Amino acid sequence: MREPLHDPLLSVVIPVYNEELWVEELVARVSAQPWRMEILLIDDGSTDGTRPILQALADRYDNVRVELKARNEGKGAALRTGFALARGDVIIIQDADLEYDPRDYGRLLEAILDGRADVVYGSRFLGGPHRVLNFHHYVANQGLTFLSNLLTNLNLTDMETCYKVFRREVLDGMKLTSNRFGFEPEFTARVAQRGLRVYEVPISYSGRDYDEGKKITWKDGLSALWIILKSKYDA
Questions:
Q1: What mean pLDDT comes out for the span 77-93?
Q2: How far is CA 192 from CA 29, 60, 107, 115, 195, in A?
């Protein structure tokens, strides 16, 4: 067991792409949590009105930093940018919309703070309240999680979850190259290869439909499938 963390600095890394309707409220909800934190907003080449909102948020909150990428590259690329800027003891990945609730931070952090875990996944399928949405999307998610588990020998229920929380040193020397949503299986494979201690906890989930701005598509599912297979042999 690692040494417990007392009063750690949290780095909340938030990739942002065309989220003008949601990001201001999201930052307000993150900021309301009772933790010492920095909030890193990584704009991935937004083309709507997101960027002026991010600049205003940086002016309003002392602990908000904004990085504006020159062009859209994808969630994985934005996260790598955020990881390089992060100064915290613990990193929390947070989507920019309102699908995931920052009030779950306490349960996500518990096993890391007391020294039991290196990485914690927040699962949408362990009994927390969630919006009922597309069955086919659920089946695809479970299929990718099953294949990831098969090749990593982990026993996750939700590999594709946004909520991945980990001690900063988990990233030391970790090879991450996927630019889009393939980050999820790639990161999971790297965690398994290192033999890190992984916990999973239930979270709430208020999923969006595609007409509400959801961005992941079937092409990302195929990409994730390839990355799961590739990461098994590409350490």
A1: 98
A2: 32, 40, 22, 18, 5
